Amino acid sequence: MAQRSPNEVLTPDDATFTQLCETLARGAERWRTPADWPREALATCAEAGVFRWFLPVADGGLGWSEADQTRGYLRLAAADLTTTFIITQFIGACRRIAGSDNPEPARRWLARLLTGDAFGTVGISHLTTSRRHLRTPVLRVTEDPSGEGFRLSGVAPWVTGAIHADVIVLAGTLEDGRELLAAVPTDHPAMRRGDGAELVALSASCTDQVELDDYLVTPHMVIAGPRVDVMRAGVGAGTGGLQTSTLAIGLARAAVEYLTQEGVRRQELAPVAQRLAAEVEELEGRLVAAATQGVCDANAIRGGANRLVMRTTQAAMTAAKGAGFVQGHPVGRWCREALFFLVWSCPQPVATEQLCELAGIDTKNPSEHLA
Ligand SMILES: Cc1cc2nc3c(=O)[nH]c(=O)nc-3n(C[C@H](O)[C@H](O)[C@H](O)COP(=O)(O)OP(=O)(O)OC[C@H]3O[C@@H](n4cnc5c(N)ncnc54)[C@H](O)[C@@H]3O)c2cc1C
Questions:
Q1: Residue 161 CA: which ligand 1 atom is closest?
Q2: DSSP secondary-structure letter at 241?
Q3: Which fold has domain 120-231?
Q4: 243-353 CATH pick, 1.20.140.10, 3.30.360.10, 3.40.630.10, 3.30.470.20
Q5: Cβ–Cβ under 8 Å, residues 356 and 307
Q6: What is the pLDDT of residue 368?
Q7: Quick one: pLDDT at residue 362?
Q8: Dist. CA 130 → ligand 1 center (Å)
Q9: Whose CA is nearest to atom 36 of ligand 1?
Q10: At residue 370, does pLDDT exceed 80?
Q11: Which residue's alpha carbon is nearest to atom 41 within ligand 1?
C-alpha cells in the first residue's frame, strides 16, 4: 500500500484540513501580481491530495460527494481565494479530460495532473459568457484537409494560468455552428500565451488570452465534438452552476470571521458580526443542500452570494477603517476580490437583477424599466 503523506486531507473533517487552510491563509497576501504565481500554495494543495477530492475513485480521485466538495471549496476560498480560484479552473480541465469518451487525453494527462506534476486549465467561456455579442466566433475550428483532425485559429480571451499550463482545454466553433472541445498541449509554436494581465484582483492567477494560429488538433486531443452544445456533453460538463457561488460565500466567511474577531474587543461590532455570520451560515446551508440534492435555483444562490460577499467585505472594511485601506491588510484584498464575482461567469439574469438593484428598479418587473 502506498505511504500516506502526513499532510493529506482525506475527508473535510480531517484535522490536517485546518492546518492546510492556516498555511494557505498565511501565504495569501503574497499572491499579488502576475509575477507571483502561487506555485508553493498549489504544491502544498497537491501534497495534501486536494486535487483528488474532485474526481471519482475510478479516475484516481478520492470521490468526495458533491456536498463535501462544496465544503472543501468553501474553506479553501476563505483561506486563499487566488489559489482556490486557480484550482477550480485546473479541476475544470481535469474533469473534462477524465469525462471524455475518448480515453487518449486522460491516458496522456490525468495521472500527472493529479499529482501536480503537470498543470492544466480551461479556455471555454467564449462559448458561454464571453464575447457572445460578436457575430463571428473568437476561436474558429476547421476540419483539416487530411481528414485527420482539426485546425484551431483565433483567441481564447480568458485562460487562467495559461503561461504555466502544460495543457489547455479549449473550446472552438465550426462554421456550421458545431463546437469542439480539445485538450491542447501548450508546447507548440502555433500557440501564443499571455504572461497574465494586471487585474483588479487575482492578478497572480496569471489570467490572459491565448492565441492560436492554425494549430493542428489531432484526434487523440479531442475531448468532445464536433457537435452542437459541446459544453453539455460528457461528465464534468455544466458551466456556471454552484462553484462560483461557493467561492463567493467562502470569501464572505473570511470577512465575517474578521468582524467576529474584532467584535471581541469592540462591542459595537458584535451584533453586526453575529447578524452577518447567521446570513453566511444560512446561505452555506442552502448551497450544500443544493449541491447534495442536485436540484436548485443556481441563479438565486449566485445572486444571494454576490450580494453577501459585497456586504460582508464592505462591512469588514468599514470596521477596519483606514488601516484596512492600506496595502497588505487582508480586508482591502477581500474587497477587491469581491468585485470578481460581479463578472466571473455571471449568468445574464443575475447580472440584470444586480443592475436593477443598483439602479433602484423593481427586480420583479425589470422589462418595465429596461428597454
Ligand atoms: C480573473 C478572471 C479569470 C477568468 N478565468 C477564466 C478561465 O480560466 N477560463 C475561462 O474559460 N474563462 C475565464 N474567465 C472568463 C469569465 O468566466 C467570463 O466569461 C468573463 O468574465 C466575461 O467577461 P467578458 O469581458 O469576456 O464579457 P463580454 O460579454 O465579452 O464583454 C466584454 C465587453 O464587450 C462589450 N459588450 C458586452 N455585451 C455586449 C452587447 N450585448 N452588445 C455590445 N457590446 C457588448 C462591453 O463593452 C464589454 O465590456 C475569467 C474571467 C476573469 C475576470
A1: 8
A2: T
A3: Butyryl-CoA Dehydrogenase, subunit A; domain 2 (2.40.110)
A4: 1.20.140.10
A5: no
A6: 61
A7: 84
A8: 4
A9: 133
A10: no
A11: 133
CB 17 within 8 A of CB 9: yes
Looking at residue 155, the DSSP 8-state letter turns out to be E
Pocket test for ligand 1, best of 133, 159, 352, 370 (most atoms within 8 A of CB): 133
Q: What are phi and psi of 20, to 5 degrees?
A: -60, -45
221 lines ligand 1 (CB under 6 A): no
pLDDT at 5 over 80: no
Torsion (CA) 127, 131, 137, 138 in degrees, nearest 10: -100
For 297-334, b/e burial (b = at least 16 CB within 10 A) is ebbebbbbbbbbbbebbebbbebbeeebeeeebbbbbb
**Distance in angstroms between the alpha carbons of the first and the last residue of the chain:** 64
Q: Which CATH number fits domain 15-115: 3.40.50.150, 3.40.309.10, 1.20.1050.10, 1.10.540.10?
A: 1.10.540.10
What integer is the mean pLDDT of 60-89? Answer: 96
Query: Among 64-73, 125-134, 178-187, where is mean pLDDT lowest?
Result: 125-134
Going from the C-alpha of 282 to that of each of 65, 93, 278, 308, 369, the distances in angstroms are 20, 31, 6, 11, 32
Residue to mutate (ligand 1; options 344, 346, 348; most atoms within 8 A of CB): 344
Q: Residue 248 in contact with residue 256, Cβ under 8 Å? A: no
Q: Reduced to 3 states, what is the DSSP secondary structure of residue 204?
A: helix
